[in-house]
Amino acid sequence: MMNPSQQELELRRQASAEAAERAGAPRSADPDIEVYRQVIRAARQPLADQLPADFAERVARLVHADEQIGFLDRWLPMIAAGVLLIAGVFSSAAMLGGAAEEVAAALGSLGLERLPWSMLMPAGLAVGLAGAAEKLISARRG
Amino acid sequence: MNDDLVLVAAVQNAERGAFERLVRTHQGLVWHVLIRLVQQAEDARDLSQETFLRVHQRLAQFRGDSPLAGWIARIAYHIGLRHLQRKRIPLESELSDDAEHDVFAGIAGDVDVEGAHADGQVIKLLERGMERLPPMQRMLLTLYHLEELGIAEIANITGQPEGTIKNSLFRARHRLRQMLEPKLEVA
Fold it and tell me: ipTM value of the model?
């Protein structure tokens, strides 16, 4: 442990060494200052390990890919749901056209004939598929 | 608008090549913060990447009232700090002065400070010594002497008072000097 006067002395030596290095002064006559100059020179040496040359390019590519996934993440489930809903309405109307009366009669016995089944069925299907799409995207993001 | 804000705006407008330019401009500083803190090159590379991904996510929070370099370095510093905490590596030495002296014992063994390439040998020895300093001191030496950042800028990055930064720098340089002392006495 240094006493305050020793510490003061070392601080002055370090400050002198730093000033001499900044000024590019010739070798100091004081060996204590010279040692600190060597310490400063060592600290200024470029490091052996560096980031790879294509680091910036790779990180930028990652960010770009992330943005694209972000876009898909936000919009794909909604787009999928919309498309499926429309397709579902049309196909259900066509497919169930003949059977609608039978189904309505069957549902009527259950008291459910007033529910809009031709809308609810494809909507349910669309929600399910949208959920699956979202899961797929999450899996891709890892 | 200053250069930092121009670059940030370009990134936010998704201008082609803007983010790559931002990374290229600041990757050196980020690398110096992280490699000095965590020391393992592979970890430092991963953390550098994590830093820039976070920078991209938070760019809207940059107000331009301080330099972008410092703002990015602060993110890198906190990412490095969290990594050290996870690995239970202390930022500053928890050893006594004597125990710290032992850490450097033997490091100067094969160095000839009077030989034809004395300066180069001493620099190599000091570089080895720097690797044995606590993470915070290693990083401060590099930010101050290699990156040539001011004490105030370093304080801004680390969130520590300027006096603490000055004291840590002083101790780091003094330790390295002590490491050389036995060789210099012989010479």
Answer: 0.84
